[in-house]
Amino acid sequence: MDEILELQRQLAAVQLEGTTTRMSETNCVELVSKLLEAGRVDVVFTVSGREYLTRERVRTEIGDEVMKHGGRLNIVEAAALIGVDLHHVEVELKGYFEERADSARRIQGDVITDDYFDLCTEEIADVLSETGDGILSLADIATKYNLPIDTVRSMLEKRVGIYIKGYLEGGSLYTESHIARSKARVCGMLRGAATPISVGDVAKVLGIRTKIVNDALEELIAAGSVNGSLRGRGERAAFTPSTFEKTRDEAIDNFFRTNQYVELDRLRQFSVVDPKKYVASKMPNDLLLTKMVISKGQVDQLRDAIGAALSSKTWLDSVPLLPATIDPEDCALVLQAALQGDEAVVAQDRFIVSPELKERCWEVFVRDSETKALEVVTAVPQADIPQQELVEIATKKTKSKRKKNKNEDSKTSRGLATSSVRTPTEEEAVEILNAKVDLMIMLEKDHLGESAEDSAFVEALIAVLYSELGSIYSAAEAQAREKLAKEKAEKAKLFERELAAVLPKIEVHLKAMEAISDEGLRTMLDEHLMETYCSDARKISLQYFSGESEVPPIGNFPPKAQKHVRAFVKASTTHEFLQAYDDHGAELCLPPRTLLDKKKEKALSQTLRSEVEERLLPEHEPLNVLLLSSVLVFARSKGGAVLKIPARAVPFLVQELRQSARGRSAESLFRLHDLVVESLKHADAASTTQDDDALAEAVQEVRNAVLAAQ
């Protein structure tokens, strides 16, 4: 107060003093301008132009005006009140805010200080205490004071608990009384609840914030004011009354004991928030699946049924033993738990098949594949398959240029048959099983006598087997081709051995025929040789080429081979046949004919004579003894040459021998011949004992003489 009085006295003294120097207004303006130009002073012109303000004075004026207006002043309004241009106010505000960085700020064109926020907070506290609910929203406060919500939130966060006795949460400001009233309302509502109710629903019905409801519930449950449990957090948290939990658990337990299962969706209908956690705590020994839980007893029952089905080597449909509402995924999990390492086949996550039954079905397809493979590989004309491709030894035996060139061409042009066995479709595979009546009887009903709908089991079994059917049929074809090749190779080797045996005999007999002077006899013997050994050699040769057990018609041979086959068929003499073999044998893949040397010829002749002798030794029929004896006598007289003669040529051969053969064996032969001729002449008349004895004696004599001579 004393300071104010002193200032008043000083002001009065100044006013009473006289003027020593007077300057005009123009001079003052010019003087200030000079000072500004010289940089001696820094002032701001007022809008009126009659006053100057220093920049410090502008900042001071801004602060004074803000204070006069309660701590909040619009910048444009401040420029008008101070009387300077808005630009200068904007410039000086930077320094103003730097000086008051903690207490002043610019918000939406207004300068606002903490004093203003303090006044607002006091007003809000008064309003909050006067309202019946004890709660205000930040949006309403922001609208009332024309401030951003974030600014309002920041303002209140610093002053709640100081100016305001309450709580700030989310978008609301509320008091202790509001919390107490809300807690009482929540308690009243939940005490009357008979079913689970979510925190969000409670908050919506009572018009209370979710956090307040959550906090109130936790306190009420902890204090025992409300009986029940709270699970979860936030709006999804749910309160379950104790009475409901007890009733619900009893209902679930009754359903589970009656049906041996319960779906997780049904647990949710019973207001179980976390069914899997509930099952883990209430049913620890039972089997939890993706969509249901089934009892351990039902799993054990299924395990026993599976064991019985496997022991009886049949199959089992698990569906009748499981809940009707179980889905395939859960069914697969149950079967996995029930099997426990048993060796069984699971089809379509439903059927259990014993390994023995699977193997039996497998054998059906194996046999079918073998049958079809055999049909395929034998359907190709065998004459199209050269024997040298089936028997390597046939191509390695010869080194002749003739066979090498022609066989290579034949191999290139013809090649092996390339047909393949088609794997049956799943529908065809079902038909293959259906054809086995005894097997289908077993597949119609499972171990418990249950039938799967619409051949579902057979189709499921086929689906399991089908992935490997392709390998079965391809393997069967390969095996069939290999087997056929082996058979043909063995047959070809047999043909080669037969040819190797018969061709030298033809040469030996042909050479023996050269010693006969009678042209007619030679012709007769040549015809007989063509009918016997040559015919056999021709048949073997054509069988060798065709691969057939019987010689096919010429038209069934490959076109390129038909002319060579005709050459064999048209040969009318032994020489023509051997010539045809030499000229056309290579084209028919026949082994080359090897000419006999002296040593081999002698050995073969000896073998043939031995065979005749062996036949002669037990023989008693005069005609046969005459034939065999004449051959041996001829061989002895011609240096060992052996003939092959028919019975009709014996008289001519004996006549030939009468001219050249000598000795006891020849005489005995001639005597037997005469007796046989005489016997044949009187064949119609009754023979006498004397004649028979003479004939028998002649037979014995010639046999002894011929064999002794050898």
Q: Give the number of helices.
A: 31
Number of strands: 17
Mean pLDDT: 79
CATH topology of the largest domain: Arc Repressor Mutant, subunit A
Low-confidence stretches: 381-419
Domain count: the total is 5
Indicate the overall shape: elongated
Structural class: mainly alpha
Q: Largest beta sheet: what is the strand line-up?
A: 3-5-4
CATH class of the largest domain: Mainly Alpha
Distance between the termini: 181 Å
The helix fraction, in percent, is: 55-70%
CA-atom Rg in angstroms: 64 Å
Tell me what the CATH architecture of the largest domain is: Orthogonal Bundle
Strand content range: 5-15%
CATH homology-level superfamily of the largest domain: Winged helix-like DNA-binding domain superfamily/Winged helix DNA-binding domain
Query: Largest sheet, if any?
Result: 3 strands, antiparallel
Biased composition (Basic residues): 396-405
Pfam family, one: WHD_UFL1_5th
Domain E3 UFM1-protein ligase-like C-terminal: 601-698
Protein name: E3 UFM1-protein ligase 1 homolog
